């Protein structure tokens, strides 16, 4: 069943790619990573996008050949065997970080949307605790499941740009109004 689903997914991806002009197809392949996803951060910024993408852009500037998904910013990965150039978690320890803000960011990390799941567990680089096997996302950033553990157990403070992002998103969610009428007006399928 899973293999049939995966095979049909590959067929759909192939059909979508076949709709591009030869130049756009070649350019889409040139910017694609192992997953086939576009590595351009946005098409709206023509200095960083490939020329063939500009005519393939969605209204918000994302690539069509990427299924409309923006490139996710990776955060929270640390040095390991094959990735020795990742940042060192010890460089991010800040026991003076405001507890309220730390808890808000911890909550944000802990309850992200599952993006991927892997077969192996990732150990904490400080205490060796098994930190899970998934990656979470919010549609902008992507992080390992165990990143929240580092904030809670080891006083890790993430870059201020991410902290601001997480706090702003949580505050906006808290302030959002709820439309009760929409759900009440829905008909059964």
Description:
With 189 residues, the protein is an alpha+beta fold. The chain folds into 2 domains: 2-54, no CATH class; 73-175, no CATH class. Helix content is 38%, strand content 8%. The chain has helices at 2-18, 22-31, 51-54, 99-110, 147-154, 160-175, 180-184; strands spanning 73-74, 113-117, 134-137, 141-144. A 4-stranded mixed beta sheet has the order 1-4-3-2, with no helix packed on it. A hairpin with a 3-residue loop joins strand 3 and strand 4. Helix 4 packs across helix 6 (160-175). It is globular, with a radius of gyration of 20 Å. It starts with a helix and ends in a 5-residue tail after the last helix. Residues 1-62 have low confidence and may be disordered.
Task: Give a brief outline of the structure.
The protein has 189 residues and is of the alpha+beta class. The chain has seven helices and four strands, in the order αααβαβββααα. Strands 1-4-3-2 form a four-stranded mixed beta sheet, with no helix packed on it.
User: Mean pLDDT, as a whole number?
Assistant: 76
Described by strand count, sense and barrel closure, the largest sheet is: 4 strands, mixed
User: Roughly how many Å is the radius of gyration?
Assistant: 20 Å
Mass-distribution shape: globular
Lay out the secondary structure.
Elements: H1 2-18, H2 22-31, H3 51-54, E1 73-74, H4 99-110, E2 113-117, E3 134-137, E4 141-144, H5 147-154, H6 160-175, H7 180-184
Parallel strand pairs: 1-4
Antiparallel strand pairs: 2-3, 3-4
Helix pairs in contact: 4-5, 4-6
List keywords for this structure.
disordered N terminus; four-stranded mixed β-sheet; alpha+beta; 189 residues; 7 helices; 4 strands
